[in-house]
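Progress note, project year one: complex with 2-acetamido-2-deoxy-beta-D-glucopyranose.
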Amino acid sequence: MLSFGRFVTCTIAALSCLSLVYCEKYKFCMVDGKGGYMKSGRYCPNLDIAESKVECVVALDRLDCLRRLSKGTADFSVFTAEDLVTAQNSKIEVLVTNELRYNAKDNYEYEVVAVVNNNAGIKSKHDLKGKRFCHPGYGYETDWTRILANYFEASVVTPSCDTDLTITENRIKATAEFFEASCKAGPWVNNPSLNIQLKQKYAHLCELCGNPSKCSINDEYWGRRGSLLCLTDGAGDISWARLDDVKTHFGLQSGLVPDQYSLLCPDDSLMPLTAAEPCIWVVKPWPVVASRRSVAQEIQEIVSSLSPNVTGWRQSVLKLLETSYTVVKKVDSVEPIESYLHRATGFLSANSFSGCHPPRTINICTTSIIENAKCAWMRESAAVYGLEPDLECIKADNTTHCMVALNQKAADIVMVPSDLVHRAEKEYNLTTLFYETVNVDEKYITVAVTKPESNIKTFADLRGKKACFPVYDGVAWNTVKKVLFDKQLIKNCPLEKEITNFFGPSCTPGLPDNLSGSMKKTCQEDTFNGEFGALQCLSSGAGDVAFVSRNSIKKFVSSENENSANSKLKIEDFKILCESKTKPCHLSWAPLGQGMIRNNSTDLWKKDTLDVFLRLDNLFGKSYQSLTTPFTMFGKYDGKSDLLFHDATIRLRSVATSKDFDTMVYPYKDFLNVDTMCINSNASRISFNGYVLLFIAAVSVRFCFN
Ligand SMILES: *[C@@H]1O[C@H](CO)[C@@H](O)[C@H](O)[C@H]1NC(C)=O
Ligand SMILES: *[C@@H]1O[C@H](CO)[C@@H](O)[C@H](O)[C@H]1NC(C)=O
Ligand SMILES: *[C@@H]1O[C@H](CO)[C@@H](O)[C@H](O)[C@H]1NC(C)=O
Ligand SMILES: *[C@@H]1O[C@H](CO)[C@@H](O)[C@H](O)[C@H]1NC(C)=O
Ligand SMILES: *[C@@H]1O[C@H](CO)[C@@H](O)[C@H](O)[C@H]1NC(C)=O
Ligand SMILES: *[C@@H]1O[C@H](CO)[C@@H](O)[C@H](O)[C@H]1NC(C)=O
Ligand SMILES: *[C@@H]1O[C@H](CO)[C@@H](O)[C@H](O)[C@H]1NC(C)=O
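Model obtained:
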């Protein structure tokens, strides 16, 4: 009886186990690329059939997949070697099961070597000083990260740690001083004017280029082939190049004598170009399939079974996995990241070169745990792509606390929404480093809104009316102050006091008690708070006019109709006040937010920091170059919008517009010093009024004479 019972239990366990394996599919974490690379819609539905062992989980970016693997909500995905370094640094355990190779025979995507001219007298690293250096340059960062591009110099050049210079400039200076001359074409930094400035200052680094004054990506000695041409044309003594390019270059060009050139090895020996086992400085590993530990063996079996001739669901899995890589190569035994990357010559040490001491760090202030987590992933991503200075993320309670932290030097940069910019400048001595630029329809476009039946036709009609502002001292508030001042509807300084006597009882969340004048509160701040609150204030009849962003009206109408069954608001229930038929109706416009720093930061520090953020934008912003992105700067993180940056941001720029041809009038930044304008204009305005009186007097005198 006892043994029978045990037998039954086992069978049931085995059965449930079997059905589990059969029913439960392995979750492939899928990242869609841009444009034509939206593969999930095409191939994921093919996996819905019962016999498929795999199903899709669609994620935002590759690090999102890494987090899902770590949480157990996905089982396997495709990663780059840089992603694996991020995983390792973030203590996320995954196992490498397969490589996605372009061809079966090459162990790495590419290998990088140093080629020297035998007549240059270079026998070891110690002979390199004062020689002429050919470098492929910059401008194709996605498969040629700065880490790999700078590896050789990081290994051989005496570092420069001048505290008066930016980290980038120190690197440039070190190379410029070490070699007699070089060609390092393409953008050294992302800020075009700084790029020109540096190239003029360190002209030695462009001296060997075909066109030293331009030193651009169009140079004949720029790029993978360019650095080898620079060497074989006799311009330089040594070239940093990919081994496959070296083979092509020297194999194709007849007349060249390969034994005039050698490989310089990291161990200080020389090797002929034709060596069977060429000495490599650093390799770029293939993209890989990696999996959670508990299912790694099974994933490897499935993935390894995918060959170009497979059909059915397996074919769809292969399509989902492959990028331009077509050969699925099994890793000998499923392997932890550390040992896998350890075998990749130089790759890990390339990621751990120490910089100058003390290290320079940019401390980014965040305002919540989840925002800080997004910031931390940005920091990790920045590090594996070789961005300097390092980033650090510091959490405060809200933006006000962050501004205090900046003021007290506990943090260096904070993202400030437009409504808080005036306060940031005035109270915390902060200044703008860059703007989060957006498309026109995402801008904050201040307008005065009334009900359609309202008899308010001009700004003068607004005197004594009940106003609804989203917040005190925000974009709308400061804009209205400037507009009323320009129209001479308020004249006396301080304008802040004056505006509160212009309107009647109003709703302005955050208005200080000692300011309220005739405008004293008419509303509960929590009900009429923010953009929607101001529109609610208007539509409920509490106010006669609301000052909000034009874009908020549509959003408000749809949100109201969504949230309350008997609400039937229409856009036509709101009318934008427009005084003139010839001038635009909007009062000002602002980007969504801006990166702000201490006003008294040094020029050098500003340049370093701006460059880091422009490069982050380039790598992880909307215009990333690779098929899929490791990290989404301007988009959701863990399902949450507008963390650290606004999702709608197009790009970061040192000007407020996303495009140079955007010439929308009335930028908000021109409205911020209206209080100083008032004080300065007091004297001239009195005399202006005087002239008017004189003029009227003159007219009446002439009238009398006639
Ligand atoms: C697919 O090709 C592989 C070799 O690439 C071969 O071993 C296998 O038998 C083929 N499978 C089918 C179903 O043709
Ligand atoms: C931040 O919190 C403080 C209270 O700790 C509050 O006074 C301040 O208004 C808050 N700032 C913002 C922008 O919400
Ligand atoms: C900049 O201002 C902060 C306070 O806002 C002050 O602590 C710091 O010493 C100033 N730095 C310089 C270089 O003047
Ligand atoms: C802002 O800067 C001015 C002038 O440098 C200084 O007098 C003032 O104390 C600073 N304010 C704060 C809050 O640091
Ligand atoms: C920032 O500092 C400069 C000089 O260092 C000064 O001219 C300017 O008025 C300051 N701006 C603010 C907002 O404090
Ligand atoms: C109102 O009070 C604040 C302090 O609470 C003060 O800084 C500000 O200058 C006052 N404003 C006026 C107009 O008196
Ligand atoms: C500006 O002029 C008005 C009178 O027109 C006066 O009341 C006010 O005090 C003046 N403000 C300044 C800062 O001079």
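The pocket of 2-acetamido-2-deoxy-beta-D-glucopyranose (ligand 1) is lined by residues 307, 309 (CB under 6 Å).
The chain has 23 helices and 24 strands.
No further modelling is planned for this target in the current period.
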